[in-house]
């Protein structure tokens, strides 16, 4: 195929444009994978915190401590501003975990991770006693 005079460097421009698109897709997939993992870490921490708060004789602060430990351990340096709150009634313990994650793509906003965990409160009922 004969090249026309103004087409010199066309392959370079095409490669640069395609490379930009491929790099953006790769970073987007990587960012999604990190967010997906972090969201499940926060969910697991909320569920485990609710379980810890629902144990017989446990307090809501014990659930908060457990959820905070697991969130910080699971997210490591990705986590920012981990906030844990809990509420307990006679029947259910609820733990809410919220955290922020810095994106790896510079132009994206800070990602918010939130999850609630609920567990039925455990209570000891001696043998032969009625609930």
Write the layout of secondary structure elements.
Blueprint (H helix, E strand, L loop, with lengths): L9 H45 L5 H16 L3 E10 L3 E10 L9 E10 L11
Antiparallel strand pairs: 1-2, 2-3
Helix pairs in contact: 1-2
Can I get a quick summary?
The chain is of the alpha+beta class and 131 residues long. It is built from two helices and three strands.
Structural description of this entry:
Helices cover 47% and strands 23% of the residues. The chain is an alpha+beta fold. A three-stranded antiparallel sheet has the order 1-2-3. It starts with 9 loop residues before the first helix and ends in an 11-residue tail after the last strand. The mean pLDDT is 89.
Task: List key phrases describing it.
alpha+beta; 3 strands; rod-shaped
Distance between the termini: 89 Å
* Helix vs. strand class: alpha+beta
Radius of gyration: 25 Å
The major sheet is characterized as: 3 strands, antiparallel
Shape: rod-shaped
Strand content: 15-25%
Average pLDDT figure: 89
Low-pLDDT runs of 5+ residues are none
Fraction of residues in helices? 40-55%
Placed side by side, the strands forming the largest sheet appear as 1-2-3
Helix run count: 2
Q: Please provide the count of β strands.
A: 3
Give the SSE order as H and E letters: HHEEE
């Amino acid at each position: 195929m004969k090249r026309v005079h103004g087409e010199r460097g066309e392959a370079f421009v095409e490669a640069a444009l395609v490379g930009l698109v491929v790099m953006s897709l790769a970073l987007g997939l990587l960012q999604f994978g990190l967010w997906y993992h972090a969201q499940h870490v926060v969910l697991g921490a909320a569920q485990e915190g609710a379980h810890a708060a629902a144990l017989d004789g446990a307090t809501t602060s014990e659930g908060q401590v457990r959820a905070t430990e697991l969130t910080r351990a699971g997210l490591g340096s990705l986590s920012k501003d981990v906030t844990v709150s809990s509420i307990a009634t006679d029947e259910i313990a609820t733990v809410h975990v919220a955290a922020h994650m810095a994106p790896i793509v510079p132009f994206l906003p800070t990602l918010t991770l939130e999850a609630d965990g609920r567990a039925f409160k455990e209570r000891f009922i001696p043998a032969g006693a009625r609930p």
